[in-house]
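pasting for the record
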Amino acid sequence: MRNAGFIVFALLTLFSCKGPDKKETIRFATFNTALYREEHGILKKDLEEGNDEQIKIIAEIIQRVRPDVLALQEFDYDPRGKYLEYFQDKYLSKSFNNSEPITYRYMMAFPSNTGIPTDYDLNNDGKKHTAEDSYGYGQYPGQYAFALLSKYPLDTAQIKTFQEFLWKDMPGALLPVQGDSTSWYSPEELDIFRLSSKNHVDVPVTINGHQIHVLMAHPTPPGFDGEENRNGKRNHDEIRLLADYISPEGGDFLTDDKGRPASLTTNDTFVIMGDMNADPEAGDSYDNAIDQLLLHPRVHPATATGSLVPSSKGSRELHQQKPDEGHPAHNTATFGLRVDYVLPSKDLAVKESAVFWPAAGDSLSYLTRGEEGSDHRLVWVDVEY
């Protein structure tokens, strides 16, 4: 039996819905929070006790930006949903440095392929049962997972996940080969090897009587391998899965974890969010992987490559000494790359965007000092809907 695998619960707070004809500005955001730990269970302790300095920084950043729909990456998975509950109650609902608490009525945690053992030597180092031999790199199941927080209702019956989709089932997959042109993975390994290093999900969010599909993923970094470039090619095809999913003519091969044919129609509205581990101009990406989304005809060009690409003064200050590595203001991580994305569909009216990375002289710059909170920055885009 396939495992639906997600946790959803609603906080019992009062809320109001506006009429279907009244538009409002919705803030979509993605944030690689680095809220994972080296051993299973440590994050639970840090969340439950409510006094962890790193988590306080992450919570205050969220409170300052105030997203309406927020994707969290690198947030360890808890099948009972308690981690998110603690995060809301012990941190987001508290004030830090006079910040205003924030409440998300709907929260969902998704399982991850990271740390799930395969019983195969996937990195061909002569050993089994290491972090690199899992479906996705991880020391324990659920490390580096992701979650969704929303102020708007979620259509849980229509959620689609692609955690178990096999890499070999993607037509034209960039399966890695060794120096002698033989497959890096054995036939037995390909029969179980999942494309998604963590998960790929489609969560319909109901806003003003209409649905926006929130598409989330966190592809593997394109490195930490050898000449076979297995991680670079996997990163490319993980991004391609999203591009194919929003292309009805190209995604007809996709089936979700319940065995249902799955891709969006030409009339579906969406926002793609996540840490894609791919920069359009620098880094180790294979074959300009992120261009599969940035240049996609259904993705809004303003936030992909145009005048509303999220940017910050903080990154411009820090990375201006490397002008040959893309656009410093567009970087979303301390290592000087644009890897985190919020990409609305072309039919949405985009109003504003930014990377939360204050300049050194800003009163909130203490929140992005080095990597005390995360080595990534929160990215947001406002749309009118």
